[in-house]
Amino acid sequence: MNKELELWEQVKEMLKASNDEATFNQTFAPITEIYKVQNNVIYLIVNNSLDIFRLKRFYLVKMNELLSQIAGESMSFGFISKAEAEEQLKSQQKETVIPTVVPTIIKKRNLRAEYTFSNFITGEANREAFTFSVKVAESPHVTINPFYIFGDVGLGKTHLMTAIGHYILENNPNTNIVYTTAQQFVEDFYKAKNKNQKNTAFADEFDNYYRSADLFLVDDIQYLADRQGSQDEFFKLFEYLFENNKQIIVTSDRPANELNIMARLKSRFSWGMQTDIKKPNQLLREAILRGKLKFLISDTDEVPANVITYIAENFDENVRDLEGALRRFISYCVSFNIDFNYDNAVLALDAIISTSKSSSNNNTKLHIEKIKEIIAAYFNINVKDLASPSRKQEFVYARQLTVYILKTKYNQTLTAIGSALGGRDHATISHAFEKIQEAIKTDSNIKEDVDNLISNLDKQYKI
Ligand code: ADP
Ligand code: MG
User: Fold this and answer.
1) C-alpha 161 to ligand 2 mean position (Å)
2) Which residues of 188-222 are buried (b: 16+ CB within 10 A; e: fewer)?
3) Is 289 among the domain residues?
4) Could you tell me the CATH number of the domain that includes residue 13?
5) H-helix or E-strand containing 452?
6) What is the extent of the structural domain holding 388?
7) Are 349 and 325 within 8 A, CB to CB?
8) Domain assignment of residue 375, yes or no
9) What is the pLDDT of residues 296-310, one digit of tens each?
10) pLDDT tens-digit readout, 268-281
């Protein structure tokens, strides 16, 4: 049944990519066991019959679809509740002898299937890290060892490190890859040490497991800070693997010299190569979104460019949140059976944009209203006309100047301006902006209006 468990783990990884974190953690993560495989049906053990109902109703079709991608059409999933499974097992136990299971402290941790080089989008922020990663993957332990990748959370460190693993494994399927987070390493170490007092098998298992690595991947090494015992153990392991020409890759939220760990370990990390991943710019964020889209829907053209621009403009801190926003948008539209358009993106994401951004963003919303009032007063029109669909010449002109001022003086994004002006799309706003930008160079009346508006705003409105 190991093969089937492996299949389920793979499907689970794919479900992880296509569901938001809460759904995944609640619905799929707890399923870790198979009850039986019969007539090509893999029976998963779930908590209770309510879960069975939910899974069948909402997810089974998708699960089977994913399974068929990796295992062929004939396989499918079924469910059994824990209670039911135990019941059945008890009755069988009378006849069969269940082999005793040797408890182990370390479960093998797999690489996430979708974290490959081909799924990693490169741009200015990560090109160097990507290039070195490919180098390491092409010739492990030869050129760059250890390889140290650092950067803020959610920028792709784990993804890149995992991609190296996949690449090496593809070229050499016998490579033994040990992936661990530093946190897991610490936990394993404590378990091994404590259990060790009674039974040396656990300490041996710890050593055997970690020392067997041909490729050792350690995620979030900063977690070793202030844990002296684990650092000592890690140092020994590092020396052992390094001396045996094994490739070591480490990720961290900061450069090695800023780690709160013992000096000799820090100095080991600087033997090889350190590279960092920076925050992606708008261009890269848009490219990443387009890359992720193909995992979520079949026809990616259904999502217009202004939606991608909007999401990329509003989620600029890290790629994980960017991806989360895209998922939320897609599942929102799918759930309500509505188009993947700009207005629906605003509907789906507005709430998380205003909560995730600092209060300054909320203030900005108020500011825009105030600014609009001052501009409308200058043109002697109603503030509503700035956001109305009316094409009346005077409104159009006032609107264009509002765009220009919001962009140049207040540094607002085109999408934010669009939404402040009645939900106009990115292209319209961009066009208005360019028009004024050009006209101002030759038309002194326009220049005068802009100057007057700016001086009014400076007088009547303080940020
Ligand atoms: P970190 O380890 O730096 O916290 P992760 O590697 O977990 O970040 O990345 C967070 C999410 O963002 C993952 O789903 C990852 O696939 C995605 N991601 C980050 N950078 C990129 C990129 N350049 N191209 C595609 N996906 C990316
Ligand atoms: Mg990570």
Assistant:
1) 9
2) bbebbeebeeeeebbbebbeebbeebbbbbbbbbb
3) yes
4) 3.30.300.180
5) helix 444-460
6) 356-460
7) yes
8) yes
9) 998 999 999 999 999
10) 999 999 999 999 99
